[in-house]
Design a protein that fits this description.
heterodimer, A: four-stranded parallel beta sheet, two-stranded antiparallel ribbon, 9 helices, globular, B: alpha+beta, OB fold (Dihydrolipoamide Acetyltransferase, E2P), de novo design (two linked rop proteins), 2 domains, 8 helices, binds zinc ion
Chain lengths: ~200, ~240
């Protein structure tokens, strides 16, 4: 029989995504035996984060104050609002340095068969945010999965009905991608969503 | 039928739903042509660079290979058949509804090749942007027929006489369509003309659309035995926003 506190730790670690009983046990032994300082730090960081973090009133991502730094910045174009599923998606878009507008992070996606509907996803908060009178265009950057697509469609309908311009990020072959090495689904969709090439002017 | 240790190759199928399983895997519910609804473990499908990850998408025709004789089989390979645009917009919402009906009403490993063809057909029609309501009604009717709950749309209950277009009917789950005085039929009533249209799978006129929808919904709810449909709830919530 292992002590209760050890069992409790192992059980607690299982709340992490993709962590089953075996990994949880490995993590617990590692923290307790090999890296007590790391464990201390993790425990402090976790309880601190839990205490101070909340959802930004404007973009819904995690932040420490009422409104996050990005949303408060005057250098961002507040007429553009880009909707993403998760904070990690926002981070990817920021890495492109190609977008100067603001974001809204859904913290999930619609998933009708799992019972995740507009209420669970808090879509009324997004509607309120996009209807602030400053936003002119909403860019839907949810994933190109069925769930991401149904989420984009739904938000698109709701916001268009409120007079906003709505666009969807394009889908196709990756930059530097070769047809020979691309998956069939992507190529098929790229063909379907083909667009006319630019006529030379003059 | 499935014998233990069986291996199935190149089986045409569609993913109906998938849920996370253990640390990196998925359990997918698939509808296949010769094996009906099967549950497959897709090992490692949630690893970041898994090739299965993008392939196991609902509404796309696939070829599936699996092995195992138990209730949960092991997916060995999935291949994209291609040729079908992804569902978008309202058609995608309809697709979820169809998948939920199949997951909730079909018993596992009961082969329904005709239903499989009907499903492939409705997805193709949805992906080509056809009007959604008639497609849903046609599929619901075929589903009930395949499950053995088929409606006799051509004969009156008890007498066996042909349905009369000008008469009104109510549906009795035990007996069939019973003629009623049009004034007592009320909201639950359905006209003989509508039944004749349904028998021909002709769901285009507004009266047929409306009455067939109510009738089929009532029947599906009955066979669902009180299980609510999440896709229907999500759809209604969207109307309210
Ligand atoms: Zn913010």
């Amino acid at each position: 029989m292992s002590p209760t506190s050890l069992d409790e730790l192992i059980d607690a670690l299982r709340c992490l995504p993709g962590v089953g009983p075996k990994s949880a046990q490995r993590m617990a032994y590692h923290l307790l035996q090999r890296d007590q300082r790391g464990a201390e730090r993790l425990s402090k960081a976790l309880s601190h984060a839990l205490r101070v973090l909340r959802h930004c009133a404007r973009c819904n991502t995690f932040c420490e104050g009422e409104v996050c730094e990005r949303c408060a910045s005057s250098r961002r174009d507040s007429r553009l609002l880009c909707v993403v599923e998760m904070p990690v998606d926002l981070a990817m878009l920021e890495q492109t340095h190609a977008y100067q507008g603001l974001y809204y992070v859904l913290m999930g996606r619609l998933s009708p068969l799992d019972g995740i509907g507009p209420r669970e996803l808090g879509l009324e908060k997004l509607i309120a945010r996009a209807s602030d009178g400053t936003v002119e265009e909403v860019i839907l950057a949810t994933n190109f999965t069925n769930e991401g697509e149904v989420t984009a469609h739904t938000i698109g309908e709701l916001l268009r009905a409120r007079g906003l311009k709505v666009s969807r990020i394009a889908r196709g072959l990756p930059v530097g991608g070769e047809l020979e090495h691309s998956d069939t689904g992507t190529i098929a969709q790229a063909l379907l969503e083909r667009r006319p090439t630019q006529e030379p002017s003059g | 039928m499935a014998s233990p240790r069986q291996r199935v190759d190149q089986q045409p199928g569609f993913i109906l739903h998938s849920i996370p399983y253990r640390e990196t895997s998925l359990i997918v519910e698939a509808l296949t042509r010769e094996h009906g609804r099967v549950a497959l473990i897709a090992k490692g499908a949630r690893r970041p660079h898994s090739t299965l990850r993008g392939l196991l998408m609902a509404f796309q025709p696939l070829w599936l290979d699996w092995s195992g004789g138990g209730e949960l089989k092991t997916l060995i390979r999935a291949e994209w058949q291609g040729g079908q645009p992804l569902l978008t917009g309202r058609a995608l919402l309809c697709g979820y509804y169809l998948n939920e009906l199949l997951v909730k009403l079909l018993a596992r490993e009961d082969a329904h090749p005709a239903l499989f063809s009907g499903y492939a057909e409705v997805l193709r029609d949805l992906s080509q942007g056809q009007a959604t309501e008639p497609l849903l009604r046609r599929f619901e009717l075929r589903l009930l027929r395949e499950l053995g709950y088929g409606l006799d749309l051509e004969h009156e209950a008890a007498t066996g006489l042909p349905i009369r277009p000008e008469a009104a009917y109510v549906y009795d789950i035990e007996r069939g369509f019973v003629p009623v005085n049009p004034t007592e039929g009320g909201a639950a009533g359905v006209s003989g003309r509508v039944l004749q249209n349904m028998a021909r799978e002709a769901f285009t006129d507004p009266e047929t659309q409306q009455q067939a929808k109510l009738l089929l919904r009532r029947l599906l709810n009955h066979y669902l035995g009180g299980q609510p449909l999440q896709s229907r709830r999500v759809f209604m919530e969207l109307q309210e926003l």
